[in-house]
Request: fold
Amino acid sequence: MSTTDKAPAEAPQQSEDAAEPALGAAGAQLSTAPVEDAPTGAAAGFGVIGWARWFWRQLTSMRVALILLFLLSLGAIPGSLIPQTSVDAMKVAEWQRTHEFWVPLAEKLQLFDVYTSFWFSAIYILLFVSLIGCIVPRTWQFVGQLRGRPPAAPKRLDRLPAHTTWRTDTSPDEVLAHATTLLGRRRFRTEGGTGHVAAEKGYLRETGNLVFHLALIVMLVAFAWGKLYTSEGGKLVLRGSGFSNTLTQYDDFKSGSLFTPDDLPPFSFTLDRFDATYEKTGPQKGTPRDFKAYVTLSKGAHGAPQKAEIEVNKPLEVDGAKVYLLGHGYAPVISVTDPTGKVIFRNAVPMLPQDSNLTSAGAIKVTDGYRNKNGEKEQLGFSAQFVPTFAGKGGGTMLSQFPAADLPVIALNAYHGSLGVDSGLPQNVYQLDTRKMQQFTKENGDPFAQMLEPKETMTLPDGAGTVTFEGIERWATFSVTRQPGSGLALAGAIAAIAGLAGSLFIQRRRIWVRAVAGKDGVTVVEMAGLGRSESARLPQELADLAAVLHERAPSAPHPVEAQAEAEEEQGERG
Amino acid sequence: MTLLAAAANESLAEISNKLIYASMAVYTLAFFAHITEWVFGSRSKVGRTAAALTGSGAGARGAAPAVQVRGAGATAVLDKPQVPDKPQVVTRSAAGTRDVPDGPGAAGGTEKGDLYGRIAISLTVLAFLIEAAGVVARALSVQRAPWGNMYEFSITFSTVAVGAYLALLALKKNVRWLGLILVTTVLLDLGIAVTWLYTESDQLVPALHSYWLWIHVSTAIFCGAVFYIGAAGAVLYLFRDSYEAKLASGGKPGRFATSVMERLPSAGSLDKFSYRINAAVFPLWTFTIIAGAIWAGDAWGRYWGWDPKEVWSFVTWVAYACYLHARATAGWKGRKAAYLALFAFACWIWNYYGVNILLSGKHSYAGV
Ligand code: HEM
Reply:
């Protein structure tokens, strides 16, 4: 009974209570929702501690939680309207160019990084502090309620949202005994009192609610953990070549602040085959239909090779890391001979796709082994445009008509001189730095450029050598990510849904049965129910229970008299 | 072989289009039947609401706290004939709420109005069946879930909304008042779908090749359709509530407003309806977002990346959570909570039309 002691103070605060304050203890503690303070700060004169306490109470109140939630949803909006650095840095640059006036303000407000900005973080950190500050006392309170017993019946059962009464010849004790068994069988928790039985059910609602809010905290912790230890690297792999999972092998790599290279699980794979199919006809001609990469995988440092496939929606999982298929493209195989006819370069050179039909651009860099006609060491460079399906002679432009390699053509501009690769500065492999190079020229002085189909060879001016377009290789880009904590996040998410369902679909309610002997020796049975919110289910349930109990304790004869008396009583009370 | 199959698919797509147009025609008939129902209903003199809120009602309320005996489930059990003197369950409303009976519905209790209301519902059932057949034909023509682009999304959306409404009717819930609004918006939705969003039936881009499409998109459509019904309830609640407030404060609403409003359920009932619908769907919406995150984890290598679509799903989710909290907070019940529910639904709609069309992100659909 101890839990109901402080009840009267809390009863009027019951948020969605159908009960009136007059119910006192009986209506109290049907939930653990925090008490709403009056917004006026009664803290003045309490000093620092007083203020701190006031602030804490405010922060953990429902009203402030509500405001913070609303702010969080408003705060998330700008990030979808203004490009975000974390999503697409190129778009951010573009936006900044077209909205110059707003840039200083936007940067001050961190509008390009909304979800890591100080103000967004402030909102959700406050919200989660509020959540923890709310959950802990509610949990204790709930534990107290679980240990307590259903509160005694209020004096006036007819004031409750659902009420019924009848007169019977069965003795009060018998009625109450039947009621206790009946309620117990329906999984109510019962408590006998003087002349009545109190019963309560639906504690799972509160449990669900607490589980849901706890699950939110678990999810937040999981996100934070994932962010700190995450790693994500990209790698372009040519058909026939391999990749092993060490830091140096990546083309680009991002990681969380607590990541160490030892966290990378050891494995390697070779790309054996890559298949892509496209829509061949209709308005969506060229739209990709299926991508599939076939690889040979070795787990661990010296694992046995095994076959595996990677598709767009089906990443390959290796020891906590996931390998995703991201993009793909073509790598024309180019060979170059020097003036003496010796092959000094033969490579598949990946080209970067420019549009959805895989019009691609790239650079072929011959860094070593070339000596010109005069025997001097030089470097060769070719800027290249590649189209997998050429429009046809006279179609003119180097724009691909279809993403598959149906009529591949490469166009080359040839340069000689210094590629500048030894300068120590990082270089874009898809671009030629022509500042220290001269373009080969034709006899009439025009720049030298030529289109090649597979197996075709072009001869550089002045017998400087030849270039052959030997064939086509494919490449695919993979992203290898590790995001620890996603299992925990998933567990949190599942718990959140389960808790939510419990919290929204289960009703916590109380039923009281009172049976007292009337003046004439006939027993008056009263039953009443109270739920946390008005619900059609409560009267229904009460009616069910009443019907069963009524069978055990059927109405006394003289219904007319009884009815009249009941009505009289009703009138007096009103 | 493949050519034959392609031809078959094309004719199926053609059939699907015809069915959608046919359903629009039937919905239009249902629309007129509903209008007729409202017109006939307006000729009845109900006036119950006014009586309950003014005059005798106001004085009586303090003395004898309006005790109502409601039948519904309670008496159904207790009506068993073998029980001689059955206990009657008496229910009481919470203190502070207006004790107003629900209006009689669009037909206003008139026989003719009721007849047209029934005709309207029969037509809605027919249109629903035709539209559902259209969706199925579309699915067969593309041999996949019919949710690859906005056109398909829209036709499924309105089918589900009408289906949910008919299911509530079949469960004998008091939702007939929703008929006219629902049919009107369904016509609007289909009109937009066939004029602006139409896309030839086709296959999916690889990113959409996943069983998560079935799970994530179907629940997203379902949540949206049911949230829509909740939002309609919230709008009507706001109107009906100001009407009741005006009556209670002694004002006299206009004749048209009175005629329409007094036939609707009471503000309390509408509010509860809207809350129950929204609360019931919220866990499913939570699941939809989580399923989307899992799919994103498989397709793009991260489960959450603040893509515009993800942002707006999150905003919608938080807004509904906000609404549910508002319902539990004393000062925020009623109108303020209803505004939150409408804000939340506006976020959902924006996430569907606005984000797909105006903002670019990873959620690009084949041909819008
Ligand atoms: C991340 C932020 C939060 C989310 C998404 C969230 C979500 C929810 C949801 C969906 C419900 C609905 C359950 C129902 O209607 O019974 C709920 C209930 C509740 N929440 Fe939160 N909540 C959050 C933060 C908080 C905070 C900070 C508090 C503390 C003040 C809080 C206290 C409560 C309480 C007391 C209930 C139960 C209300 C009742 O008994 O009807 N929540 N919450």
About this structure: Residues A 31, 33-34, 60, 62, 65, 69, 127, 130-131, 134, 209, 213, 216, 503-504; B 321, 324-325, 328 surround protoporphyrin IX containing FE (CB under 6 Å). The longest strand of chain A covers residues 321-337.
